[in-house]
Amino acid sequence: MEDHFDKALIFTDLHITPPGETIIGLDPLARFAEGLAHALARHPDAQHIILLGDLAHSGDPAAYARLVPLLADCPIPVTVTMGNHDLRAPLRAALPGSFNAEGFAQHARDLGPLRLLVLDTHDYEDRAPLEQDGWLCEARLAWLDAELTRAAEDGKDVVVFAHHPPCPVGFWAMDAIGLANSEALLSRLHAAPHVRHLVCGHIHRTIHASAANPAGGALPVTILKSPCHQIPMILGQSTFADSVDEPGAYGILLALRNTVVVHSEDFALSDGSVQTY
Ligand SMILES: [Fe+2]
Fold it and tell me: Which residue numbers delimit the Calcineurin-like phosphoesterase domain (predicted)?
């Protein structure tokens, strides 16, 4: 029996609004606070919490200001990256420690035998702010190359995190705003045998995929849903603004006996008490 889990918690697509604003009648800050409390109560042994982008709904400084006290009180270290709904300047002003010297929210964190590489796929100087699709510029790709090499030298297996998935998921409106230079990412990950898994957000639904390598094999991909609003299960033609009030969730990543495990935990379904029938 295992008596210890190397564990990280993942929240994506918080979409926090300024005070008084809601999304389809939901208060994103309240939903995140509820999910965070749920996660901290059940997983106080987690070593990291990753916020995988779309922290704010419209990049508003007043939204980030509501998030800061929650994170300041969090007993587990929090790693932050950006999504398409974030804006770099206000997020950096609110959480300046979340950006590297080049101005990107990219991070390497150790989790037992794993190295977690968190990428910043927000459009930046290459294209206009608040473009919805993602992009990894040459500087960010160079960081990834260096970190993949360093992880191999350190004998670490790698889990990569990126807000924008580099693969289609069947919601056409979302597929149109995925990672625009997905091949730049996938070619690197496919060429690195120590990369074990990719975790994404952006879609607002729990999805499992395998991003094929033209040379053979595939990379497993887990996409986690939001603690707040989800995309309705309308495959094919859709709009990315369509949302539905279904249970919010967070992810639980485990490094477990040479296996990367990603759970998706719905909260706010009930009081969570276990009953025997
Ligand atoms: Fe989102």
Answer: 9-205
CA of 223 to the centre of ligand 1 (A): 12
Cβ proximity of 87 and 122 under 8 Å: no
Residue pointed to by tokens 């790709």: 141
Mean pLDDT estimate for the chain: 93
Which residues have their alpha-adjacent CB atom under 5 A from ion ligand 1?
13, 54
The alpha carbon of 54 and the centre of ligand 1 are apart by a number of angstroms equal to 5
Q: Which DSSP helix (H) or strand (E) runs through 89? A: helix 88-94
Q: Rounded to the nearest whole angstrom, what is the distance from the C-alpha of residue 202 to the centroid of ligand 1?
A: 5
Q: In this model, does residue 101 exceed pLDDT 70?
A: yes
pLDDT in tens, 10-52: 999 999 999 999 999 999 999 999 999 999 999 999 999 999 9
Ligand 1 centre distance from Cα of residue 79 (Å): 17
CATH of the domain at 116: 3.60.21.10
**pLDDT for residue 274 is more than 80:** no
Domain count of the chain?
1
| Structural domain for 100, as ranges | 6-266
